[in-house]
TrEMBL record:
GO MF annotation terms: serine-type endopeptidase inhibitor activity
UniProt lineage: Bacteria, Bacillati, Actinomycetota, Actinomycetes, Pseudonocardiales
Keywords, alphabetical: Disulfide bond, Protease inhibitor, Secreted, Serine protease inhibitor, Signal
Protein name (database record): Subtilisin inhibitor-like
Similarity section: Belongs to the protease inhibitor I16 (SSI) family.
Signal peptide: 1-23
Subunit-structure text: Homodimer.
Pfam families named in the record: SSI (PF00720)
Record InterPro entries: Prot_inh_I16_SSI, Subtilisin_inhibitor, Subtilisin_inhibitor-like_sf
Domain Subtilisin inhibitor: from-to ranges: 40-110
UniProt subcellular location: Secreted
GO CC terms, sorted: extracellular region
Length: 126
């Protein structure tokens, strides 16, 4: 009897032109790869919840991403001072963010600058 009532209720929604929303996961699970002269390091950034992150400050990184609607290029740079050592790093950030998929690539003169330019999303140290 419950199955029949659920089916009738669903038909009522469809007849009224209302389709119930299906909630999907809104968890960000980003992989941050940093390649430099010392090799490749990888950091995991999970947002909401931050459980399982290997990022040193996941809450701040997730907030920077949220403030920029997941657009790495739109993140306001941090107010930190970096030396201008030339130790280039290539960075990739990939993974789901809300209803999109982030696939970011960037080149920076050193890891400190990478961190500053991305508001700490790319950690200065792993």
């Amino acid at each position: 009897m419950r199955t029949v009532l659920a089916g009738v209720a669903a038909l009522g929604f469809l007849a009224a032109g209302v389709v119930p929303a299906v909630a999907g996961p809104e968890v960000a699970q980003l992989s941050i790869g940093i390649r430099g002269a010392s090799g490749l390091s990888e950091v995991k950034l999970n947002c909401d919840p931050t459980d399982g992150s290997t990022h040193p400050d996941p809450k701040a990184a997730c907030q920077a991403l949220a403030d920029a609607d997941g657009d790495i290029s739109a993140i306001a740079p941090s107010d930190i001072v970096c030396t201008m050592d030339i130790n280039p790093v290539s960075v990739t950030i990939r993974g789901p963010w809300e209803d999109t998929f982030i696939d970011y690539r960037g080149e920076f003169p050193n890891r400190c600058v990478a961190s500053a330019q991305t508001g700490g999303v790319i950690p200065d140290k792993a």
